[in-house]
């Protein structure tokens, strides 16, 4: 049984091989991903607020419950508006600056889009 790998998209060589999640061309040294479109879309996961609204960079959100600030005795109060959010990967998927608190990361489940 012969396994057929795709030709190199750069030089069209038929001598490509697979190494983990990459295809590699030995002739021109071009490497490209083996990820399918479904895996790429999963990596670009849609982030939603507590009400199911899709969030995007630059949105303004409001905090829906009092949140303790880790490493301090301060509390972010319910209704605090957070402007110009930035979406990032990870458990805390919102990166932002809050007046009076500074740079912070929030979980999207504790905010709602304004």
TrEMBL record:
| UniProt cross-references to InterPro entries, sorted A to Z | YjdM, YjdM_C, YjdM_N
Q: Which domain of life is it from?
A: Bacteria
Q: In this entry, which stretches build a coiled coil? A: none
| Boundaries of every Protein YjdM C-terminal domain copy | 47-114
Q: Name one Pfam family in it.
A: YjdM
Q: Which residue numbers delimit the Protein YjdM N-terminal domain? A: 5-33
Family assignment from sequence similarity: Belongs to the YjdM family.
Query: What name goes with this protein?
Result: Alkylphosphonate utilization protein
């Amino acid at each position: 049984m012969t396994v057929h790998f795709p030709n190199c998209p750069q030089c069209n060589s038929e001598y490509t091989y697979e190494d983990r999640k990459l295809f590699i061309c030995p002739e021109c040294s071009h490497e490209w991903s083996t990820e399918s479109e479904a895996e790429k879309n999963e990596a670009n996961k849609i982030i939603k607020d507590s009400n199911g609204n899709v969030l995007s960079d630059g949105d303004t959100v409001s905090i829906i419950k009092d949140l303790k600030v880790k490493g301090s005795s301060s509390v972010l109060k319910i209704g605090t508006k957070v402007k110009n959010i930035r979406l990032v990967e990870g458990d805390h998927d919102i990166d932002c600056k809050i007046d009076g608190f500074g740079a912070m990361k929030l979980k999207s489940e504790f905010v709602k889009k304004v």
